[in-house]
Specification:
The structure holds two protein chains of two kinds. By secondary structure, chain A is of the alpha+beta class. Chain A has one domain (18-227): 2-Layer Sandwich (Ribosomal Protein S5, domain 2), CATH 3.30.230.70. In chain A, 28% of the residues lie in helices and 30% in strands. Chain A contains four helices and ten strands; from the N terminus they run ββββαβαββαβββα. A five-stranded mixed β-sheet of chain A has the order 1-2-3-5-4. In chain A, strand 8 (174-181) and strand 9 form a beta hairpin. The relative contact order of chain A is 0.18. Chain B has five helices and eleven strands, in the order H-E-E-E-E-H-E-H-E-E-E-E-H-E-E-H. Chain B has a five-stranded mixed β-sheet with strand order 1-2-3-5-4. A four-stranded antiparallel β-sheet of chain B has the order 9-8-10-11, sandwiched between helices. Classes of the chains: A alpha+beta, B alpha+beta.
């Protein structure tokens, strides 16, 4: 931190530039490409569709599956392809971040599959992935009670900051991804590692709420851009 | 799980083929629009996103110093991998690469390796190490003819890649020693009509397809027949000729005839 500015010249409460592209893929039922700072992420949704293997199906509702996967070229040192412990955990918490807003009772015995591919990673991939997945679900026409928006907050040089970049994540004092339905204020994902006092935590959560609200606006705007004037089709 | 196709669509495509027509209105030897965008992934030493119609692949090239294979201490190493991620098609499933992904990776690898696209002897380093070149193909949208899109993506990403010499203390960064420009052209045969750049539907109903990879002078660098169907010797000869001249045209359109663009 220098003169109140961060390593990439942002203010503590400033998000990186974010761009959503709705319907970026042909084959998927819904899709969204997002650039969030240096993160480049593609999300796709398939379903509701039949469940394989069958024993996973639920008689009264759809199941939700979420796969977070990093491309081997997405990081500085080449990463071995395939899931590692980190991506398995991220897949789980991301699924649970989005699950609560999906109206699963409409589609018994089916699955809604969400695939998130991290093409380039620059801190905050799980949050950016959740944002893209949420838009892709809406693009697929999956009925939802709201949109989930997510961002990370953290602490760098004893200052609470929004939306950390790689260096801040690596050398900062705390990192706390948050996801929520901004409309209802319900938090669906909360993780934290590092050191925060109780006061700092309160500040951070408040900042997270503000960040999520800005992102929710962008998500809604991206969807409106694509579907405006298509109500009759 | 395989892509399924309605009988009626199958009949329609075969009927059209008899009149030398295709469902999307293309000529038999016509490709869908090809778009190549390089440098999208700054974290990779080289990258290219290729679209052929709605088919979309992203290729990342990572280059790092490492140990050579014991039997070839004086040559660099190329490792090619293809991920058919489930985001790209309802018929792809999560898990380790299946036979299709491995076949695809090996054909792309063969094109680069056997054509001599990279002079591997120039990839040695003073301390006995060599450059390891990882070509990772990430398929994003599968709408037919992944083979040609992946091979093209690999070539474009390699041409634009730089060896990260500075990061590892080997002097200034430098481009890869590119010597050839292998282009893959895939054809299917429907009732004696040869179609280039098969769409997903055409690829699904065709009983076999042939990929031909050729270089700057038109010489062949690799071939792969896949599928359970058969091809006659005459058909193969026709496809090879057609593919070699089509490759020239694609190369001219995209790289202006040279490999340094």
């Amino acid at each position: 931190m220098k003169n109140g500015k961060r390593i990439d010249d942002r203010l503590p409460n400033e998000l990186r530039p974010i761009k959503f592209e709705v319907g970026a893929l042909e084959r998927a039922d819904g899709s969204c490409y997002v650039e969030h700072g240096g993160n480049k992420i593609m999300a796709a949704v398939y379903g509701p569709r039949a469940v394989h293997p069958r024993h996973l199906q639920q008689a009264n509702r759809a199941i939700i599956r979420y796969r977070y996967n990093m491309a081997s070229f997405s990081v500085e040192e080449r990463r071995r392809p395939g899931p590692d412990r980190r991506s398995v955990e991220i897949s789980k918490v991301s699924r649970q971040a989005i699950d609560p807003v999906i109206i699963k009772e409409f589609y018994p015995r089916s699955t809604i599959d969400i695939f998130v591919e991290i093409l380039q990673a620059d801190a905050g991939t799980r949050s950016a992935g959740i944002n893209a997945a949420s838009v892709a679900l809406a693009d697929a026409g999956v009925p939802m009670r709201g949109l989930i928006s997510s961002c990370a907050v953290g602490k760098v040089d004893d200052t609470v900051v929004l939306d950390l970049v790689k260096e801040e994540d690596n050398y900062g004092q705390a990192d706390m991804p948050v996801a929520m339905d901004v409309r209802t204020g319900e938090v669906t994902l909360l993780q934290m590692d590092g050191h925060l006092t109780l006061d700092e935590f309160e500040q951070a959560l408040e900042l997270g709420k503000i960040g999520c609200a800005s992102i929710a606006d962008m998500q809604r705007e991206a969807l409106i851009q694509k579907y405006r004037g298509k109500e009759d089709e | 799980m395989n892509d399924v196709i309605a009988e009626i669509k199958r009949d329609y495509i075969y009927e059209l083929a008899k009149r030398s027509e295709r469902a999307d209105g293309r000529a038999l030897d016509e490709y869908r629009p090809i778009q190549v965008e390089v440098g999208l992934i700054g974290k990779a030493e080289g990258s290219a996103r290729v679209k052929v119609g709605n088919t979309q692949v992203l290729v990342g090239v990572k280059i790092q110093p490492g140990e050579p294979f014991p039997d070839t201490p004086d040559t660099g190493v190329i490792i090619t991998n293809v991920e058919l991620v489930p985001l790209a098609s309802p018929s792809f499933e999560p898990g380790p690469p299946d036979e299709n992904a491995i076949e695809l990776a090996r054909v792309v690898d063969r094109g680069v390796r056997e054509s001599g696209a990279i002079d591997l002897s120039e990839l040695t380093l003073p301390d006995g190490k060599v450059w390891l070149i990882f070509i990772d193909v990430h398929v994003l949208d599968h709408d037919g003819n992944l083979m040609d899109a992946a091979a093209l993506g690999a070539l474009a990403a390699l041409v634009h890649a730089t060896k990260p010499c500075e990061r590892y203390g080997y002097g200034p960064d430098a481009p890869l020693p590119i010597k050839e420009s292998p282009i893959a052209v895939t054809a299917v045969d429907l009732d004696g009509e040869i179609m280039l750049d098969p769409s997903l539907d055409e690829e699904t109903i065709a009983s076999s397809k042939l990929t031909v990879i050729s270089g700057l002078q038109g010489a062949l660098a690799g071939m792969q027949k896949s599928g359970t169907g058969t091809l006659s010797v005459e058909e193969i000869a026709r496809i090879v000729k057609l593919a070699s001249s089509k490759a020239m045209q694609i190369r001219d359109d995209l790289f202006g005839g040279s490999t340094d663009g």
